[in-house]
Each structure stands twice: as C-alpha cells, then as structure tokens.
Amino acid sequence: MVSIGLNQIAVPSYDVGAFCALAHALNCTGVEFRNDVLGSDFDVRQAAHYGELARENQLEIFNLSEVPQFDKWDETKKREAEKLIELADAMGAKAIGLIPRNDGANLDKATRIENLKAALHALKPLLDEKKLIGLIEPLGFSTASLRYKSEIVSALVELGMEDTFKIIHDTFHHALSGEKEVFSNHTALVHISGVERQDVDFCDMQDQDRVLVGGQDRLGNITQISQLQAAGYCGPVSFEPFSPMVHKTNDIAGELAKSINFIDGQLEKCAA
Fold first, then answer.
1. Average model confidence (pLDDT) for the chain?
2. pTM of the model
3. Total structural domains in the chain?
4. I need a surface site. Which of 132, 139, 200, 254 has the fewest CB within 10 A?
5. Concatenated DSSP letters for the chain?
6. CATH code for the domain in which residue 170 is found
7. Residue 124 is part of which domain span?
C-alpha cells in the first residue's frame, strides 16, 4: 500500500477540523495546508492550532503552500516567504511550497535559470534557520517558467542545495510537460489527480479538469507512481484534485476511498 496524503484543495469548503478528521478516517499519513484556502490573513496562533488538530488526528503536515511566482524574486516575495515560513514553523509543517511563474513571459533558458538560482540563494538561509524544506513544483503548462524537473535538479546539484530544496512530482504537470525522466532521489512529495475528459488535448488541460484517479485516467498516474517507486521513491502521494465536480460531490469520503483502493489495486498488479 502507498502512503496517502490529502491536499486541502480536495475539500476547500471544509474547516480544518473536518479536513483533518476526513484525512484520519481515510488512513492518510499526512495533509497539506494551503494559504489560498485558509485565507491570507490567518496568523501564527491559528497556524499553531491547525497543527494541533493535525497531530490529534495522527497526521503529519507535509507542506504549507504556497509562495507563488517565487522565481520572480524581490522584496515582496521575500516578505511572502518569511510569512509562510513563520506560519509553517508554528504549524509544525515539514516544508513550504514554492510555485514558479506561470505568466507566459517566454524568458530564455539562461534567464529562467538565473532567476531560479537567485531565489534559491535568498530562500536557503530563511529555510535553514527553521529547518524547513522548500518544495519546488514545476508546472507543465507552456506558459510556466519552470516546466522541467531536470532544470531544477541541475541547479540544485550545481549549488549544493539538495538538502534544503526538493521536488514535488505532480502527475498532472509531469504529463503535460512531456518530461519522461523522474528524479526520485530529489522528490519529497507526489501530487496525484486524474483527467478523464476525452474532448481536451493535453496542451489544453487546465486545473479544473483534475479529478480523482480512476480507471479512465489519461495522465498515467499508476505508471508514474510505479516508475517513481521502482527508482526508489517511498514517500507519500497526496490527492490534489482541483475540479469543481470533485468539490461538489455528495460523498467525497467514499469517492476518495474508492480512488485509494483503485490505486492500491493497480500498484499491486504492477508489482506482481
């Protein structure tokens, strides 16, 4: 069986207590909190309370997301990062989420990597002080500045920052990017979601298309998880469905349990 996590975007209408209770009922090992769900004004006191609620439900906090456009580093980004790090520390989270630009700026590779390195240099002392990990999530969209894990990993290795920064392997974005290689040794978390629509090309898929993983999935979630595990990944996979269809379902616990059973069954077949 794979270690399962639950991202807050799966049930954005739930309060934190109900969210943690759901994750516990599904035998999840951990959760991911999001500042876009909790609200930009949640404070250290609330963060500490949310951490207690998670621990009462025997859950780790894998991640508190996010610093958007982190590779467009300036004083504003520094303040955003400092605030998120403070909240993650109060919460007892293991990491913070770092999301690259997705503005279609079409920067050349040298500039994109230079921007990445500048942000890494600035973030490292902030993260190291609180013993937190920075989780970088490449986005598969053609409009994103960091689409490929290979570019991020190369920068981390060159700078010797592999202990401070890790990768989120998102099955949706991996499929959209067309990248084949996985980097299990640099991966700390896997985001899973499925796309079942037959009337949309990969290049046109968007977050609202992301549902739970089932038999009609077009992203190859089982293949991707199997590939990661075969390469040595043994960490959690965390549900991150953005589709309003998922958010409106009458039995989200049942649908998540069904998806978990499907994934476990398919991975057992792959391992046999």
1. 97
2. 0.97
3. 1
4. 254
5. ---EEEEGGGSTTS-HHHHHHHHHHTT-SEEEEEHHHH-TT--HHHHHHHHHHHHHTT-EEEEEEEEETTTS-SHHHHHHHHHHHHHHHHHT-SEEEEE---S-----HHHHHHHHHHHHHHHHHHHHHHT-EEEE----STT-S---HHHHHHHHHHHT-TTTEEEEEEHHHHHHHT-----GGGEEEEEE-B---SSS-GGG--GGG-B---TT-SS-HHHHHHHHHHTT--S-EEE----HHHHT-S-HHHHHHHHHHHHHHHHHHHH-
6. 3.20.20.150
7. 4-271
